[in-house]
Amino acid sequence: MIETRAAVLVESGRTMPYEESRPLEITELRLDPPGPGELLIRVRAAGLCHSDLSVINGSRLRPLPMALGHEAAGEVVEVGEGAEFESGDHVVLAFVPACGHCPSCVGGRPALCGPGAAANKAGTLLGGGLRLSSGAGERPHHHLGVSAFSEYAVVSARSAVKVDPGLPYDIAALFGCAVLTGAGAAFYSAQVHPGESVVVFGLGGVGLSALLAAKAAGAAPLVAVDVVPAKLDLARRSGATHTVTGGPDAVEEIRELTGGGPEKAIDTTGVVSVLEQAYRVVRPGGTAVTVGLPDPAHGLTINALSLVAEEKTLRGSYLGSCVPRRDIPRFVGMYQSGVLPVEGLVSHRLPLAEINAGFDRLHSGEAVRQLIEF
């Protein structure tokens, strides 16, 4: 058993600013050694994501207390029996621990792994049970099988992907969620082809990753939409041919820029009204892909006739429709060759002690991707 300093969510739905209400408490926890098929990871870098924020604000309910964080990279310290890793391996952690045996995994869709989803909902590791404990005997839950806002973490080996040890940890962490989700949405879910017109709604870490991937796939024109001017500037530097300020007039402006509407639209905002815009704006025969996580209480209204008369497609994308063990190394290679310059996603670096203020920045839209470095 070792001790680790971690950010633990004790109560969802606290008032903002979080820097004052402090929903995340930095506390010392004990960590059990890895069991069969598990790894002890020294976390080196972890990213702040809207999926974490949705648990903090209460729009996605999870068992509490919970050690948060799901986008991370680190080093293997100890290997449990049967885990095919070695001490010293550099790994990126994926937030769906794919079992490898259920129908979804066998069918090549590990993002939809049934046992992995059940474990994530219960706040346990893939093999069940909890590995964290407090001095008072409380057992905090695991967030998406990772709990990355911690100096150390025990994870299922099914949550880890070995990567090139020459890849800096701060860049490697981005591939666990932002790049995997955004680039995967462009390459796999939307299947962007050279010369297709594409619009990306929302320019956080996931949206900018989708933009970079759409550019790499040859999209033209490539339109970026957000309400934050600084993010629109970053999108232009990242390859967008046009930028549009989000709002009720965005649909008509996008149609003008794309000659009647894009062939592909990717929504990363998690805002239902924006998703409705993404579906409306695509031209007949077009595809709208959504990767955002809206409040589960919110419904979606679309024109049902358009599904048939205009042959439009509305598609969800979880984990970018990726296979992490295949695609994380693939996307890392694209970064190393200059095709996916994801280093531009990092807008802030902060210590663990400032994590509550970091989520204030994320909520306000000020931040793109913030990294905690240990």
List the main descriptive attributes of the protein structure presented here.
six-stranded parallel beta sheet; globular; 2 domains; Quinone Oxidoreductase, Chain A, domain 1; 13 helices; seven-stranded mixed beta sheet
Write the layout of secondary structure elements.
Elements: E1 2-9, H1 18-21, E2 24-31, E3 38-48, H2 50-56, E4 66-67, E5 71-79, E6 90-93, H3 103-106, H4 114-122, E7 132-133, E8 141-142, E9 152-156, E10 160-162, H5 169-174, H6 178-189, E11 198-201, H7 205-216, E12 222-226, H8 229-237, E13 242-245, H9 250-257, E14 264-267, H10 272-281, E15 287-290, H11 304-309, E16 313-316, H12 324-336, E17 346-350, H13 355-364, E18 369-373
Parallel strand pairs: 4-8, 11-12, 11-14, 12-13, 14-15, 15-16, 17-18
Antiparallel strand pairs: 1-2, 1-4, 2-7, 3-5, 3-9, 3-18, 5-6, 6-10
Task: Write a compact overview of the structure shown.
The chain is of the alpha/beta class and 374 residues long. It is 29% helix and 24% strand.
Give a verbal description of the structure.
The chain is α/β, with parallel strands linked by helices and 374 residues long. Helix 6 (178-189) packs across helix 7 (205-216), helix 6 (178-189) crosses helix 12 and helix 9 packs parallel to helix 10. Helices cover 29% and strands 24% of the residues. The chain has helices at residues 18-21, 50-56, 103-106, 114-122, 169-174, 178-189, 205-216, 229-237, 250-257, 272-281, 304-309, 324-336, 355-364, and strands spanning 2-9, 24-31, 38-48, 66-67, 71-79, 90-93, 132-133, 141-142, 152-156, 160-162, 198-201, 222-226, 242-245, 264-267, 287-290, 313-316, 346-350, 369-373. Helix 7 (205-216) links the parallel strand 11 and strand 12. 53% of the residues are buried. It is globular and about 60 Å long. It folds into two domains: 2-176 and 341-373, Medium-chain alcohol dehydrogenases, catalytic domain (Quinone Oxidoreductase, Chain A, domain 1, Alpha-Beta Complex); 182-318, NAD(P)-binding Rossmann-like Domain (Rossmann fold, 3-Layer(aba) Sandwich). It is built from 13 helices and 18 strands.
